[in-house]
From TrEMBL:
<dbReference type="InterPro" id="IPR001537">
    <property type="entry name" value="SpoU_MeTrfase"/>
</dbReference>
<keyword id="KW-0808">Transferase</keyword>
<protein>
    <submittedName>
        <fullName>tRNA G18 (Ribose-2'-O)-methylase SpoU</fullName>
    </submittedName>
</protein>
<dbReference type="InterPro" id="IPR029026">
    <property type="entry name" value="tRNA_m1G_MTases_N"/>
</dbReference>
<dbReference type="InterPro" id="IPR029028">
    <property type="entry name" value="Alpha/beta_knot_MTases"/>
</dbReference>
<dbReference type="Pfam" id="PF00588">
    <property type="entry name" value="SpoU_methylase"/>
</dbReference>
<dbReference type="InterPro" id="IPR029064">
    <property type="entry name" value="Ribosomal_eL30-like_sf"/>
</dbReference>
<dbReference type="GO" id="GO:0008173">
    <property type="term" value="F:RNA methyltransferase activity"/>
</dbReference>
<dbReference type="GO" id="GO:0006396">
    <property type="term" value="P:RNA processing"/>
</dbReference>
<keyword id="KW-0489">Methyltransferase</keyword>
<dbReference type="GO" id="GO:0032259">
    <property type="term" value="P:methylation"/>
</dbReference>
<dbReference type="InterPro" id="IPR051259">
    <property type="entry name" value="rRNA_Methyltransferase"/>
</dbReference>
<dbReference type="GO" id="GO:0003723">
    <property type="term" value="F:RNA binding"/>
</dbReference>
<feature type="domain" description="tRNA/rRNA methyltransferase SpoU type">
    <location>
        <begin position="124"/>
        <end position="264"/>
    </location>
</feature>
Length: 270
């Protein structure tokens, strides 16, 4: 069995070689935040494998021996260190007990310009104000599962490469391309200029039923809004149509990731 080139035993909690993994409950921050390093962090064998297969340049792995060994096939050609420690030492370094037993860190890849992502796509999701990292990760996982070509992040969205988002997405945020719309909602014009129809998802009663919206026809972008108030009036006005998911009486809305999955399925025509 082959392993990564540099298998390194770590026995001391303060070993500087594992500083990238240290105190993740506080140090896991975006590069534009105080103390932020902006590393991409993957947890667990499955998610680490997806990081290794992604465009993000891997810096190192850190885990208990059996989890590192479980990654032998994926790491055979890597030239990065794999740090091996006991579960106790690892927990003290990371700052919490990690049931998944292995982590990997990577640098960020270059950001895709939104025009490039729009040009090469047929089905897109546009997010506004998605601040919850778990919802964001779930949206990326649903997008990957249901054939969405990419994600455009509008105003008020959290960082999709935050550790919790990567974990909840099961690593799919590492393979679904995304780009940032800097001017909101003015940049929605980029979609319309490329022949996209914009469908704003909203529970309001006067919106068109999802059953009648024909989201599987042509180039379509679905707009999803924040977990509380939903899309702003500006975003809905900028769209070509407002679309609602028919629901039973007494239920006013769905979790945004659930609503997204239903809309993504409608876009696929399945």
């Amino acid at each position: 069995m082959r392993y990564v080139t540099h298998m390194v035993e770590i026995s001391e909690v303060d070993d500087p070689r594992v500083d990238d993994f240290r105190d993740l409950s506080r140090a896991d921050r975006r590069p534009d935040r105080p103390g932020g390093r902006g590393l991409v962090i993957a947890e667990g064998v499955v998610v680490v494998e997806r990081l290794l297969a992604s465009p993000y340049p891997v810096r190192a792995l850190f885990g208990v021996r059996r989890r590192i060994e479980a990654l032998a096939g994926a790491t055979a050609a890597l030239d990065v260190p794999a740090y091996v420690a006991s579960a106790d030492v690892m927990a003290q370094v990371v700052g919490f007990h990690l049931n998944r037993g292995v982590l990997a860190v990577a640098d960020r890849a270059p950001v895709i310009p939104p025009a490039e992502l729009i040009e090469r796509s047929r089905r897109l999701v546009v997010l506004e104000g998605i601040g919850d990292h778990e919802n964001l990760g779930a949206l990326f996982r649903n997008a990957a599962a249901l054939g969405v070509d990419g994600v455009l992040l509008g105003a008020g969205c959290s960082d999709p490469l935050y550790r919790r988002s990567v974990r909840v997405s099961m690593g799919h945020v590492l393979r679904v391309p995304f780009a940032h719309l800097e001017s909101w909602p003015e940049d929605l014009k980029l979609l319309r200029d490329n022949g996209f129809r914009l469908a704003a998802l909203t529970p309001r009663a006067d919106a068109k039923s999802l059953r009648d919206a024909a989201l599987d026809e042509g180039r379509v972008a679905v707009l999803l809004g924040s977990e509380g108030p939903g899309l702003t009036e500006e975003a809905i006005t900028a769209a070509d149509l407002a679309v609602r998911i028919p629901m039973a009486g007494g239920v006013d809305s769905l979790n945004v990731a659930t609503a997204g999955a239903i809309a993504f399925n409608a876009m696929s025509g399945a």
